[in-house]
Design brief:
The protein has 3 domains: about 60 residues, OB fold (Dihydrolipoamide Acetyltransferase, E2P); about 210 residues, Rossmann fold, CATH 3.40.50; about 70 residues, no CATH class. The protein has 8 helices and 20 strands. The strands form 4 sheets. The chain has a 7-stranded mixed sheet with strand order 16-15-14-17-18-20-19, with helices on both faces. The structure holds S-adenosylmethionine. S-adenosylmethionine binds next to helix 4 and strand 15.
């Protein structure tokens, strides 16, 4: 057993301490706390520990009535009061940009109107007729009867969900739920309606999605003469949301099912000036003949690959609005674009309360002295 004082939090929400000059990461701890721990992982440069006993607890620690926390691994910072979670996430974004030497104004984080009951989708594991999640480190199955993050409609229906085999994916819109792969759920965002299939991507926190899309629209400042490219467009949400401001929107997305949803959503919302292409973002945008004014990018956590970065630099739009669910890949990509694009502002959003995740929207403007580049002149390798 070791006694450790926690001095900081890492990017995964774990407390940081030291044992004889070696760094140790300890989940479910807060700076200022002193804990007795045992080591669960021993690596060359660091250790990971688990708390056996709190010697000194932080006065701000929030004790929670979640019987699965922290074992289930779905939440990492549930023990922090919500206001402190927001400070933690805002500092994390500042630290990541600072570490990569990217200077950009970072606006105060926009919190979630609902810190609990916000998740509109979940994937349950199914074991022996019970639904639950796998414990993060051990992968031991934990039966879940109620999850604080889930929309109440999903929690109320856990007992009615099928429990025969495999995973169960559930989507909800507060009125309806579905676990049927043939059915869709309708989400209302401002005055738009979006139909989404069970397996297509849709942001998991409706209230924050609305705020995030408004920020994208504000950063984009589209004009009636603009042609906007919506890369990684999912079910067409962002493109449809900004379509009334511009001449034309082109959405590109790899999932066939999402593209079908997107076409249906354009009709549902009476949007005549949007078209969708199913395929890889980098490959398909390379083939476009249109004169693109701005690009919205909302990639998966891995960020942009080289081909997509190259295509963006070849298209060379005036403006890029980058929506990112991982600040590490966002800062990496902003750095790769830096010879041609100037980061103007970043706004963080708390899409995922009680977890360490933070969503960001970043506005980038073309540097006035740069021209569209040829592939062999690109700064990216
Ligand atoms: C973070 S989601 C964004 C969706 C959408 N913009 C929204 O707000 O709902 C990322 C999307 O990228 C799609 N995707 C993943 N890899 C892709 C690729 N190589 N080319 C195009 N789309 C891709 C996924 O299917 C997913 O729909």
């Amino acid at each position: 057993m070791e006694t450790v004082e926690i001095t900081d939090l890492d990017h995964q929400g774990r407390g940081i301490g030291r044992i004889q000059n070696k760094i140790v990461f300890i989940p479910n701890t807060i700076p200022g706390e002193i804990v007795n721990i045992h080591i669960t992982q021993e690596k060359k440069n660091y250790l990971v520990g688990r708390v056996d006993q709190f010697v000194k607890k932080s006065p701000s620690r929030q004790e929670f009535l979640c019987p699965y926390y922290p074992l289930c691994g779905g939440c990492q910072i549930l023990h922090l009061p919500y206001a402190e979670q927001l400070i933690y996430k805002e500092n994390k974004v500042h630290n990541i940009f600072k570490r990569y030497h990217v200077e950009v104004p970072i606006k105060p984080i926009i919190g979630s109107p609902k810190p609990f009951g916000y998740r509109n989708k979940v994937t349950f594991q199914n074991e022996n007729g019970k639904l639950g999640f796998y414990e993060e480190e051990t992968h031991r199955f934990i039966e879940i009867k109620n999850c604080l993050l889930l929309d109440s409609k999903i929690n109320e229906n856990i007992i009615h969900l099928p429990k025969h085999s495999g995973k169960v994916v559930v989507r909800s819109n507060q009125q309806d739920i579905t676990f049927d792969h043939q059915k869709k759920v309708m989400h209302n965002i401002v005055d738009f309606q979006f139909m989404v299939s069970l397996d297509s991507f849709f942001q998991i926190n409706d209230a924050v999605t609305e705020l995030l899309y408004q920020k994208v629209k504000e950063y984009l400042q589209a004009q009636k003469t603009d042609t906007v490219l919506d890369l990684y467009c999912g079910i067409g949400t962002i493109g449809i949301f900004v379509s009334r401001d511009c001449k034309k929107v082109i959405g590109i997305e790899i999932s066939k099912e999402a593209i079908e949803n997107a076409k249906e959503n354009a009709k549902l919302n009476h949007i005549p000036n949007i078209t969708f292409i199913c395929g890889d973002a980098g490959k398909e945008s390379k083939k476009l003949k249109e004169d693109i004014t701005s690009i919205i990018i909302d990639p998966p956590r891995s960020g942009l690959n080289q081909e997509t970065l190259e295509t963006i630099l070849t298209i060379h739009p005036k403006k890029i609005v980058y929506v990112s669910c991982d600040p590490m890949t966002l800062v990496r990509d902003v750095n790769l674009l830096k010879e041609y694009y100037h980061p103007v502002e970043v706004t963080p959003f708390d899409m995922f309360p009680n977890t360490y995740h933070v969503e960001n929207v970043c506005l980038l403007m073309q540097k006035s002295d740069t021209k569209s580049c040829k592939i062999d002149e690109l700064p990216v390798k």
